[in-house]
Write a structure and sequence with these properties.
Layout: H1 2-29, H2 45-63, H3 69-92, H4 97-127
Helix pairs in contact: 1-2, 1-4, 2-3, 3-4
Length: 128
């Protein structure tokens, strides 16, 4: 049980930092770089702001234990789509391997968090 909890929280903390804190920090402290990743891919400026808001809401939903399971599922799905489409965008537009691998690495961490989340919730429901 403790191993499951540790794996879940390490993976989820990485997601919180990568998909929540970093984009929000850019928006608040370096707004000139908000669209640095989306502009070269041909997306409009407003897309970057929407993406940041959705990422932050997604990691909040995943990380708070009181959020209903259905909302968590939607958050995991939304972040999954985001990362898959980021990979596809980089593969078609700039074709830089490092840019293509990064969303897949974060997706692997997201999958790890997703797989260990029910183990934590199920264990809590059985013991608590």
């Amino acid at each position: 049980m403790k191993k499951n909890k540790i794996i879940f929280w390490i993976a989820t903390t990485i997601l919180i930092l990568w998909e929540g804190v970093m984009p929000l920090g850019t928006l608040l402290f370096a707004p000139q770089y908000v669209n640095a990743g989306t502009k070269p891919l041909g997306y409009p400026d407003y897309f970057a702001y929407t993406l940041i808001i959705c990422k932050v809401l997604g990691v909040i939903a995943i990380s708070l234990p009181s959020v209903p399971v259905k909302i968590k599922e939607w958050a995991y799905a939304g972040l999954t789509f985001n990362l898959i489409f980021a990979f596809i965008s980089h593969a078609y537009v700039d074709q830089v391997i490092a840019y293509m691998i990064m969303p897949l690495a974060v997706l692997a961490i997201l999958i790890l968090s997703y797989c260990y989340n029910p183990r934590i919730v199920h264990r809590k429901a059985v013991t608590g």
